[in-house]
Recover the amino acids of this structure.
């Protein structure tokens, strides 16, 4: 289980990026984080991945507190971030350096096959398309068998068709290993296609506004009623999260003016 | 899916490529040599026809004769070897120290702020300005020459390496952090491969400067070397020897650069491929 315990993050320049995030995610659950820009989604991902540390509160995977990058957490970034000087197979095996070569090659071959890129192992990353590179990046994160897979807007740079096929790939991979998945996205459809729970966040400072459970069984039919219902609830929550933000911010300048006037 | 068709496309595309690229290469070289060959033939004809006496501007045949003379008497090889040894010694010294200090100032902020301003100031000192000082300090023999060449090689290598380290993609370093690399692994698996292309370009620039500085070094009283051949040709009134030495410099520099490129090519295979496809 991935548990976030009143996690807050304030940057050195005083910006409060996250305030009191409490969230428990079951092993094997897929959770999508959505929200307007500046609501701390990416900050939260960086905290869970251990690349940054929380100002207060704790993050734990099965009771193991995360303070630095942890073997139980795999990360897929917004860009593929493949190492251009390694072949595709070596990129996938990057996190398996401690294993003997034969074992490493076997598991990267298996991973290539699972993401539909069998036979591409000897190529250079530059020879692949953006969607293929991102598939390699997902394979690289999954090969060390993490308990938690983090994806930070992984498909936002891709076209709609590539994105749809990558959703399929991701769900197939997930079904095979059943890691906990946390995915940040701008795309409400993407969130509902993939996630068991959609967490709507609110900016300034970043907080959890509402959590929407998606009850529709997989594979999900985007034209079906449960899908439509869930989408409406998320859109409605997003709308309200921005409205309350306006309500909160409006009185503030007035108070400031009053103070100045005096 | 399209993997099969991709492979087929690749196979179909491969056979005609070598033939057309050979043709292109031949025409490429033909064009490159057309101008110098034409000029040389024209000059040769002008001297033979008596339009010019060719004393100060010797025709190509005289330059070739001078070359052959020098080669037969064994002088040419002594001079080439002397120059080559100086360049290599100076290059090794300058490249190693430039890489080490460049790495230091690329990695450590304090090192950069203390070292970089002084080095940038020294960099703008003209090479010849060092000659009197090195002569006083190191004497008139090899040490002063090698030191001068090392100074010339040092700066491009220093700048190239420190710049490459500064501009390493933070995003790739984060990939290393996510996979919990030790500091040593971070250097060998991310930093070194990342700075390799820029470092090799810096080494090539350094080698080029080494060949420039060796002439300055050999002007300051040498008894052998291609630079000495230049001075000697001037004093003896032998422009054909001067031109032979210049041509030898051109060939030597080009060959050394070529060897450096060939030696480092396997390290940059991942780059070459992308470039040849563009």
């Amino acid at each position: 289980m991935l548990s976030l315990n009143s996690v807050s993050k304030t940057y050195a320049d005083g910006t409060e990026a996250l305030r009191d995030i409490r969230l428990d995610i079951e092993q094997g659950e897929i959770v999508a984080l959505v929200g307007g820009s500046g609501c701390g989604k990416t900050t939260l991902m960086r905290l869970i991945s251990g690349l940054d540390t929380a100002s207060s509160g704790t993050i734990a995977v099965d009771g193991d507190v995360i303070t630095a990058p942890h073997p139980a957490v795999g990360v897929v970034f917004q860009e593929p971030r493949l190492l251009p000087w390694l072949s595709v197979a070596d990129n996938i095996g990057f996190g398996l350096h401690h294993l003997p070569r034969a074992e490493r090659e076997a598991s990267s071959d298996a991973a290539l096959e699972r993401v539909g890129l069998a036979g591409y192992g000897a190529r250079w990353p530059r020879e692949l398309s953006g969607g293929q590179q991102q598939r390699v990046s997902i394979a690289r994160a999954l090969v060390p068998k993490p308990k938690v897979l983090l994806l930070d807007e992984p498909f936002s740079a891709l076209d709609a068709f590539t994105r749809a096929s990558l959703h399929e790939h991701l769900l197939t991979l997930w079904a095979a290993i059943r890691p906990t998945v946390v995915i940040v996205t701008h795309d409400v459809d993407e969130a509902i296609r993939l996630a068991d729970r959609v967490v709507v966040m609110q900016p300034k400072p970043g907080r959890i506004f509402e959590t929407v459970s998606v009850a529709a069984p997989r594979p999900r039919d985007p034209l079906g009623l449960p899908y439509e219902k869930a989408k409406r609830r998320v859109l409605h929550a997003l709308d309200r999260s921005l409205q309350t933000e306006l309500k909160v911010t409006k009185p503030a300048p007035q108070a400031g003016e009053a103070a100045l006037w005096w | 899916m399209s993997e099969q068709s991709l492979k087929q496309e690749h196979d179909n595309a491969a056979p005609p490529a070598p033939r057309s690229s050979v043709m292109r290469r031949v025409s490429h070289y033909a064009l490159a040599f057309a101008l110098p060959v034409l000029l040389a033939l024209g000059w040769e004809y002008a001297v033979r026809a008596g339009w010019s006496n060719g004393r100060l501007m010797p025709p190509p045949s005289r330059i070739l004769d001078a070359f052959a003379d020098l080669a037969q008497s064994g002088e040419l090889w002594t001079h080439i070897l002397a120059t080559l040894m100086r360049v290599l010694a100076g290059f090794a010294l300058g490249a190693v120290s430039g890489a080490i200090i460049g790495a230091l100032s690329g990695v450590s902020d304090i090192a950069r702020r203390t070292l970089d301003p002084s080095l940038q100031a020294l960099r703008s000192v003209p090479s010849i300005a060092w000659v009197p000082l090195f002569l006083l300090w190191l004497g008139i023999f090899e040490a002063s020459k090698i030191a001068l060449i090392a100074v010339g090689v040092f700066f491009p290598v220093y700048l190239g390496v420190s710049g490459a380290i500064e501009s390493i993609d933070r995003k790739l370093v984060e990939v290393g952090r996510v996979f919990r690399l030790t500091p040593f692994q971070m250097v060998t698996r991310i930093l070194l491969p990342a700075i390799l292309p820029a470092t090799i370009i810096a080494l090539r620039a350094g080698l080029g400067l080494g060949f420039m500085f060796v002439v300055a070094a050999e002007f300051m009283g040498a008894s052998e070397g291609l630079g000495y051949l230049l001075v000697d040709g001037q004093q003896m009134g032998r422009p054909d020897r001067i031109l032979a030495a210049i041509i030898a410099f051109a060939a030597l520099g080009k060959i050394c650069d070529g060897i450096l490129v060939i030696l480092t090519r396997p390290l940059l295979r991942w780059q070459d491929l992308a470039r040849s496809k563009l």
